[in-house]
Amino acid sequence: MNIATTLTIEKEVSNDYFDASFVRQPDGRLQAHIKYKKWSASAKKETKKLIDTFDEPLYTFIQDMHFLKFLNSLGFYSTGRLVNCPFPGKEKYVFGEAVYTKESPEEYCLKAYEEVGNTMLPLAEIDGYGRIEEIEENMSKLPQAQWETKHHFSDGVYTRETFIPEGTILTGYRHKHKSVSVLASGIISIVIVDSSGKATSMGVSTAPAVFTTEADIKKIGFAHTDVVFTNSFNIVEIPQECHNEENIDMIEDFLFEKGSK
Questions:
Q1: Which of 3, 32, 46, 185 suits 131 as a labelling partner, its CA being 20 to 30 A distant?
Q2: Domain chopping of the chain, boundaries
Q3: Domain 8-102, what architecture?
Q4: 62-84: per-residue pLDDT in tens?
Q5: From start to end of 72-186, where are the E strands?
Q6: What CATH fold (topology level) applies to the domain 110-257?
Q7: Is the pTM of this model over 0.85?
């Protein structure tokens, strides 16, 4: 296996089962590249033993769904990111990315969450009537993240797709209606707050995840990675000719309590 000379190989292992290289990427991530000579249960066991010698997360490419199934069996999970391959001849290819840690994804993310310090909001700071609005007021005075919302329409259904950058803390509108929420990619911690001010932690969610958001619920979250989050709403009560982006303000007024964002 020929590694591009611009990359730093930190460890190489060759045995009867595979050749493995661990390459430090420019962004600091340690990328694992393993080429198997022959496959067996012993090869899988030796792979697991090798990757467990690292105390930091290991990243690798998802070549196809069959390979993702194999990675999942080793304990890797998808990060939701698309990354370029640095190997000669494959520089133009884009692959999905997977990560492996000795800890569970939830344990690893919560540790990272704690390390952000003041960005972390303990549940006690959110619980109580009016607290989330106070938090939003304080957040509005801070530098604002660059995020993007896309709008999708089908028969009587409006789907709101939002891209949230890594490291962002955010809140959403309070929903007037029950809706379906989909975490399409990434990892996010979410706390929901009902109309009485009671806060309930939903913990750390790793994509893909689907759940229902009840009416009168407001969310506050922290994006551990880049996140794509969608909500789907029933808008059959709105005239069909208004199911378009030109009428987003009217649709949002129908769906949300917009006293604060």
A1: 185
A2: 8-102, 110-257
A3: 3-Layer(aba) Sandwich (3.40)
A4: 878 888 888 888 988 877 777 77
A5: 77-84, 94-100, 148-154, 157-164, 169-171, 174-175, 179-185
A6: Jelly Rolls (2.60.120)
A7: no
